[in-house]
Specification:
This protein is an all-alpha fold and about 600 residues long. Helices cover about 65% and strands about 0% of the residues. The chain is built from 24 helices and five strands. The strands form two sheets. A three-stranded mixed beta sheet has the order 3-5-4, sandwiched between helices. The structure holds zinc ion. Zinc ion binds near residues 386, 390, 414 and 417.
């Protein structure tokens, strides 16, 4: 069936961007205003940021500019995200992008002039400032790693070149790599990158699934050397920057922005690798038995436990479900959920030119907007619960903090969203006595929430750490070495429960995350805090909910360890990790027991 055009979908299935600007004219007025504000800041402050008061005044102006620019940008980007074919949207987003590039280059003087001041001047400004205290503290923290203005300028001039490895990676993967079709039992099947990752990995016909994996891997292998060379250039560049900026090692450099210690980072990777493995091996065995497979191979790991069970849900039912499922978070949280559905924060529509996947955008000073690929499935309701977690987070911190204090560390940012998935699952499980429904709910939590964050991305994190260790000692990596590391990584985790089909070692070629620093491990970090906080809320109720709200209010005024502590979760120990892993183990126990009850299969 052909998808509808955007102008053909019913309004009630779309989000209401007039909540940001009632008309395009209003948008235009703010767009013009932002540019004028930037000019004014330049005229008024350039060359003058030498005393605390002037610095504070300048940052107050910048704060106002950022608030307006956020709205202007959100409106432009959100309208484009649901309708790429609309030339008016395209043009608006294009104009915004160009204007922002100009504005940010015009305003680079602010940070660089402040960084040239003696510490006392910056500290004086911190004392005086209201909204920009942490902004200034961050600058002070960066100061020891700042190079001379000349050097910074040269580095900035090379910024596009520094981005080349990622560009080359994407070109190889998305432009050059053409997948041929493959044949199984005389039938031909088309193949493509997303076709493989979105469909064939879940294909129930074992011959087709495994043949797809082989065809996919064979094509990947033809690009292993160019991909490895791009990646080696990426990590070598990071190491050089770490060294010239005076960081102890490349890990310190990459963790600096996240405000995470090496210990926290290592613990995440080591504890999950060691303690989660036995549980996941058992889950793999269960899938193997359920499908009657001769052996469990790497190509079989994504198989769903009960693909025939798929309850249908409408948006109205989704509203009711998440409303009940998250009611433990209190009345004001529930009223936000009602508002999200009633005031049309959510875009359910399916139409041509709409972005796929899901996200939540939370423009400062307004409500959040949630984009979905809604397919009437129960799994879509989990996505809503997740995205509402982001909405709830930014509803709190956007109203409690200045715009500068809403840049939450990657280590923590997925905690409120994944916590909703845990709370929602625990609630949903109790709403039915149907064992098949209960098993579906639990299996969903494992195969989506935990598998994604604790297995897929954590294996990436383990591999990345090995690569950076080599780079840190002055070494380099090539395709052979990278495959060797990834194979060892998978062997370590899956043991003899999973046969590592040829091609599994090439998994290092599949993730764009490797071009984003130490990002992969943060998925599990957010969910670790989320699990511990959710369990505390379920145990203690109101007091734990109140603490959680304080955490949401705090925005980025605290570092990740401080935020977790406020929620009653001590991530300076391995306690929360062990708790999360034990919880995963208990869910897998329950899934095994239900499978015995439903199918008579014992694992
Ligand atoms: Zn999220």
């Amino acid at each position: 069936m052909e998808l509808a055009r955007r102008d053909e979908v019913p309004a009630e299935l779309t989000w209401d961007l007039s909540l940001i600007y009632a008309t395009p004219e209003e948008w235009q007025a703010d767009f013009d205003a932002v540019q004028k504000m930037a000019d004014d800041i330049e005229t008024q402050f350039k060359g003058k940021l030498t005393d605390p008061q002037t610095i504070v005044d300048c940052l107050a102006h910048l704060e106002e500019l950022e608030k307006k620019a956020y709205l202007v940008g959100s409106y432009a980007e959100l309208s484009t995200s649901v309708d790429y074919y609309n030339t008016e949207n395209q043009e608006r987003a294009g104009r915004f992008g160009a204007a922002m590039a100009q504005i940010s280059s015009k305003l680079t003087f602010i940070d660089s002039e402040i960084l040239l001041q003696p510490d006392e001047v910056i500290k004086g400004a911190i004392e005086l400032s209201k909204g920009a205290k942490n902004y200034l503290k961050d600058l002070l923290r960066k100061k020891p790693h700042q190079l001379s203005p000349e050097t910074e300028k040269v580095l900035a001039a090379f910024s596009q070149t520094f981005g080349a490895p990622y560009e080359i990676y994407n070109m190889a993967k998305l432009a050059d790599m053409q997948f041929p079709s493959f044949t199984v039992n005389g039938k031909e099947y088309p193949l493509g990158y997303s076709l493989f990752e979105d469909d064939y990995e879940y294909e129930r016909d074992t011959d087709v699934r495994r043949a797809a994996f082989k065809a996919f891997s064979d094509k990947l292998r033809q690009y292993e050397n160019v991909t490895a060379a791009a990646y080696n250039a990426q990590v070598t560049t990071e190491k050089v920057e770490a060294t010239v900026r005076g960081f102890k090692d490349v890990f310190d450099f990459l963790l600096f922005e996240q405000k995470v210690t090496r210990e926290m980072y290592d613990r995440q990777i080591d504890v999950i690798t060691e303690r989660l493995a036995p549980h996941m091996r058992r889950y793999a065995k269960l899938i193997q038995k359920k499908y009657g497979l001769d052996e469990m191979t790497f190509a079989d790991l994504k198989l769903p436990l009960d693909p025939d069970f798929d309850p249908k849900v409408t948006p109205e039912e989704a509203h009711k479900l998440v409303r009940e499922g998250l009611s433990i978070l209190g009345e004001d949280y529930v009223s936000m959920i009602d508002e999200a559905f009633e005031k049309r924060w959510i875009d359910f529509a399916k139409n041509q030119g709409k972005e796929t996947g899901g996200f939540c955008a939370s423009p400062y000073g307004k409500n959040s907007f949630i984009l979905l690929s809604w397919n009437d499935r129960m799994s879509d309701v989990f996505t809503i619960a997740h995205e509402l977690g982001h909405a709830g987070h930014f509803r709190h911190c956007n109203s409690a903090q200045s715009i500068f204090d809403t840049e939450v560390s990657g280590y923590f940012v997925e905690a409120p969203s994944t916590m909703n998935e845990v709370l929602f699952t625990d609630h949903l499980k109790q709403t039915s006595t149907d064992p098949r429904f209960r098993r579906w709910v639990l299996a969903n939590l494992i195969s989506n929430t935990y598998y994604h964050n604790f297995v897929t991305h954590l294996r990436e994190a383990w591999y990345q750490r090995e690569v950076y260790k080599i780079i840190d000692e002055g070494g380099t990596v090539n395709a052979e070495k990278l495959s060797e590391i990834f194979k060892k990584n998978l062997e370590l985790f899956w043991g003899d429960a999973v046969v590592l089909t040829e091609g599994a070692e090439l998994t290092w070629m599949r993730q764009p995350h490797y071009y984003m620093g130490l990002y992969s491990y943060t998925y599990s970090a957010g969910l670790t805090v989320a699990t511990a906080a959710a369990k505390r809320i379920e145990r203690e109720g109101q007091p734990a909910v109140e603490d959680w709200k304080k955490v949401l209010d705090a925005g980025s005024t605290l570092d990740p360890a401080g935020l977790a502590k406020l929620a009653g979760v001590d991530i300076s120990t391995d306690g929360p990790l062990r708790e999360a892993i034990d919880y995963i183990g208990s869910i897998i126990d329950e899934i095994c027991a239900l499978t015995k009850e439903i199918d008579g299969i014992e694992a």
